[in-house]
C-alpha cells in the first residue's frame, strides 16, 4: 500500500505551511522507493534463503517500513521511523515473523510502539487554518498596495522627460523586479492552492513547476537589482556624479541575466537529480543552488553598504566639498543605505537555521512584511524624491496656467463675439 495509507494513527495537519508536512510525505516516499528497488532487484535475481527447497518471506513494504527478506521460521525487528518532530525517541523494537503463510502482523503495532509527539487538537488545527487565512489576507493587501504604488512610480518616471536618466532607469528595473515578485506570489497561490482538495506535497505538474520557477526567478531578480542599486550608488560616489550610460547594459546583465542563469542551472539540476513534487520543498539540498547566489548578493551588498558609509563620511566631513554637494550626497544615499540593511537581514538570519525552525516568523517576515517592501521602495525612490516632487509641481503649475489661459481665451472670445 502507498506511503502513509497503512498508518491510520498519523494524519499530517492540513495547513498551508508546506515545509513540515511535505518533508514527512517525502520521507515516506523515499523509503518506499528504496524498498521497491530492492524488491525489483530480488525478483530479477532471486537468491535462495537457506536451501533450494525452502521458502521464505520476500522483502516487503508495509506502508511505513521496509522488511528485508528472511527464511521461514525467522523474524525481523526494526525501530520506529526516524522523523524529527513526529515520533518520540524510543528504544522499542517492532517484530515480524516469517511463517508458512507469509509475514505476520507487526508486534507490537506501530501505534503502540511508536509514540507521536503532541498532536494538535481540532481547536489548534482550526486556529492554524484561521492564522494562515489571516496571513494570506495581510500579504494580499500588502502586495496589492505595493503593485499599485510601483506601477504609479514607473508611470511617473516614464512620463516626465526630465526624469529620464540612468539612475531612474535602474529604479524602474528595480520596481519591475518587485512587480514580478508580487505577481509570482499570486500566480503561485493560484496554482498551488486554488483547489484545496489537491495534495500540494505530491503535486507534480508542468504548471506547478513553472509557477515555482517563475517565483524563484523573481526573488533572485529582486535581490540582484538591489545589488545593482548599491553598485550604482558606489559608482556615483567614486566618479563624483559622472555617470556613464554604457554601464546600464552591465547592470541589466547582472540584474536580469544572473538570476536567469541561476534559475536555468537550478531547473536542470532538479530535472536530472530531484524531479519530485512541485519543487517547492526547501529541505532539498539543491535549494542551495538558489539560496547561495542570494546570500552572495546580500553579502556583497553589505560590503557596499560599509564602503559607501565610509566614503560618505569622508565627503561630508571634507572641507573641500560645498554644502550643495553634501546635500546631493545625502539625498542620493539615504534611500539605498536604508534599503540595503533592510532587505536581506532577516534572510541571512533564517538561512543559518533549518527550514523547519521558526516557520511562523519566517512566513511573517517573508510574506507579510515582505509584501510591503515594494510600497516602501516606491515611497523612498519616487514619492519622497525631491526631484520628482519638483517636476510634478512644475508640470502641475504649467497645466493650471494652461487651463486658466484657455478659460480666459474662451471668455474673451464670448465677450468680443
UniProtKB/TrEMBL annotation:
Family: Belongs to the G-protein coupled receptor 2 family.
Signal peptide extent: none
The G-protein coupled receptors family 2 profile domain, residue ranges: 34-118, 135-385
Membrane topology: Multi-pass membrane protein
Cellular component terms (Gene Ontology): plasma membrane
Chief location category: membrane
Record Pfam families: 7tm_2, HRM
Gene Ontology annotations of biological process type: adenylate cyclase-modulating G protein-coupled receptor signaling pathway; cell surface receptor signaling pathway
Record organism: Trogon melanurus (Black-tailed trogon)
Compartment(s) where it occurs, according to its Swiss-Prot or TrEMBL record: Cell membrane
Gene3D superfamilies per the UniProt record, alphabetical: GPCR, family 2, extracellular hormone receptor domain, Rhodopsin 7-helix transmembrane proteins
Protein name: VIPR1 protein
SUPFAM superfamilies for this protein: Family A G protein-coupled receptor-like, Hormone receptor domain
Superkingdom of source: Eukaryota
Residue intervals passing through the bilayer: 137-158, 170-187, 223-241, 248-268, 288-308, 336-357, 363-384
One GO MF term attached to the UniProt entry: peptide hormone binding
Keywords recorded for this protein, A-Z: Cell membrane, Disulfide bond, G-protein coupled receptor, Glycoprotein, Membrane, Receptor, Transducer, Transmembrane, Transmembrane helix
InterPro entries: GPCR_2, GPCR_2-like_7TM, GPCR_2_extracell_dom_sf, GPCR_2_extracellular_dom, GPCR_2_secretin-like, GPCR_2_secretin-like_CS
Amino acid at each position: 500500500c502507498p506511503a502513509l495509507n497503512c498508518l491510520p494513527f498519523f494524519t499530517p495537519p492540513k495547513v498551508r505551511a508546506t515545509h513540515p508536512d511535505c518533508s514527512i510525505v517525502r520521507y515516506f516516499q523515499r523509503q518506499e522507493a528504496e524498498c521497491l528497488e530492492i524488491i525489483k532487484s530480488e525478483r530479477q535475481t532471486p537468491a535462495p534463503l537457506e536451501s533450494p527447497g525452502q521458502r521464505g518471506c520476500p522483502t516487503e513494504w508495509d506502508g511505513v517500513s521496509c522488511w528485508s527478506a528472511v527464511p521461514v521460521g525467522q523474524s525481523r525487528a526494526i525501530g520506529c521511523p526516524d522523523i524529527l518532530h513526529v515520533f518520540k525517541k524510543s528504544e522499542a523494537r517492532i517484530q515480524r515473523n516469517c511463517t508458512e503463510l507469509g509475514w505476520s502482523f507487526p508486534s507490537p503495532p506501530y501505534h503502540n510502539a511508536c509514540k507521536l509527539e503532541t498532536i494538535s487538537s481540532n481547536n489548534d488545527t482550526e486556529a492554524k487554518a484561521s492564522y494562515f487565512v489571516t496571513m494570506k489576507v495581510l500579504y494580499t493587501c500588502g502586495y496589492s498596495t505595493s503593485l499599485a504604488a510601483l506601477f504609479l512610480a514607473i508611470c511617473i518616471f516614464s512620463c516626465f522627460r526630465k526624469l529620464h536618466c540612468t539612475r531612474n532607469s535602474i529604479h524602474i528595473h528595480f520596481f519591475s523586479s518587485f512587480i514580478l515578485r508580487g505577481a509570482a506570489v499570486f500566480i503561485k497561490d493560484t496554482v498551488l492552492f486554488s483547489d484545496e482538495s489537491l495534495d500540494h506535497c505530491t503535486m507534480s505538474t508542468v504548471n506547478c513547476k513553472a509557477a515555482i520557477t517563475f517565483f524563484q526567478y523573481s526573488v533572485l531578480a529582486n535581490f540582484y537589482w538591489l545589488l545593482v542599486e548599491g553598485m550604482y550608488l558606489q559608482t556615483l560616489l567614486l566618479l563624483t556624479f559622472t555617470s556613464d550610460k554604457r554601464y546600464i547594459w552591465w547592470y541589466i546583465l547582472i540584474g536580469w541575466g544572473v538570476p536567469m542563469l541561476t534559475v536555468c542551472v537550478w531547473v536542470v539540476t532538479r530535472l536530472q537529480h530531484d524531479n519530485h513534487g512541485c519543487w517547492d520543498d526547501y529541505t532539498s539540498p539543491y535549494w542551495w543552488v538558489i539560496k547561495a547566489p542570494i546570500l552572495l548578493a546580500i553579502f556583497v551588498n553589505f560590503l557596499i553598504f560599509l564602503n559607501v558609509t565610509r566614503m560618505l563620511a569622508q565627503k561630508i566631513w571634507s572641507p573641500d566639498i560645498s554644502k550643495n554637494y553634501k546635500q546631493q550626497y545625502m539625498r542620493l544615499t539615504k534611500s539605498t543605505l536604508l534599503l540595503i540593511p533592510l532587505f536581506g537581514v532577516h534572510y541571512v538570519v533564517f538561512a543559518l537555521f533549518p527550514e523547519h525552525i521558526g516557520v511562523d516568523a519566517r512566513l511573517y517576515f517573508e510574506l507579510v512584511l515582505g509584501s510591503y517592501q515594494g510600497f516602501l521602495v516606491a515611497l523612498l525612490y519616487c514619492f519622497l524624491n525631491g526631484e520628482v516632487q519638483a517636476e510634478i509641481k512644475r508640470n502641475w503649475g504649467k497645466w493650471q496656467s494652461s487651463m486658466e489661459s484657455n478659460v480666459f481665451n474662451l471668455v474673451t472670445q464670448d465677450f468680443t463675439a
